[in-house]
Amino acid sequence: MNNHSTNADIQEYGCRALLKFVENDNNEVMIAEQEGISTILSAMKRHSSNANVQESGCAALCILADNNENNKLRIAAAGGIIMILSAMKNHLFNANVQDARVWLCSTLELGCE
């Protein structure tokens, strides 16, 4: 993802691929330790107007945060809350982004539904 940061399609597919890898709890930890959270957030920031990147990024962050307190803290510390709010504002009428946002807010226990 880092080598093709300007390509929205690659960023979307990269986030989706991470979703598959985090089905294993060991991968969830490894992805976070290898800067996966910051990579996802960078993709979301660079492609803030792309609803597919936002949806995939929120979904990947949610899976990383689910039942993992360390990852919740990493996401918050890396600016994830601001990114979620930005996705929410930029894609008000996109149901998939809003669904992913609600899911992530719930996982992070932000109370922003």
- Taking all Cα atoms into account, the compactness measure Rg is 12 Å
In the predicted model, the low-confidence regions spanning at least 5 consecutive residues are none
Number of strands: 0
> What share of the residues lie within helices?
over 70%
Q: Based on Cα principal axes, name the global outline.
A: globular
The whole-number mean of residue pLDDT values reads: 85
H/E element sequence: HHHHHHH
Estimate nothing, just give the exact number of structural domains.
1
Please give the largest β-sheet: none
Number of helices: 7
**Strand portion:** under 5%
Distance between the termini: 30 Å
Structural class: mainly alpha
Explain what you see.
It contains seven helices and no strands. 73% of the residues lie in helices and 0% in strands. It has one domain. The model has no long low-confidence stretch (mean pLDDT 85). It has helices spanning 8-21, 25-33, 36-46, 51-65, 69-77, 80-90, 95-107. The protein is globular. With 113 residues, the protein is mainly α. The termini are far apart.
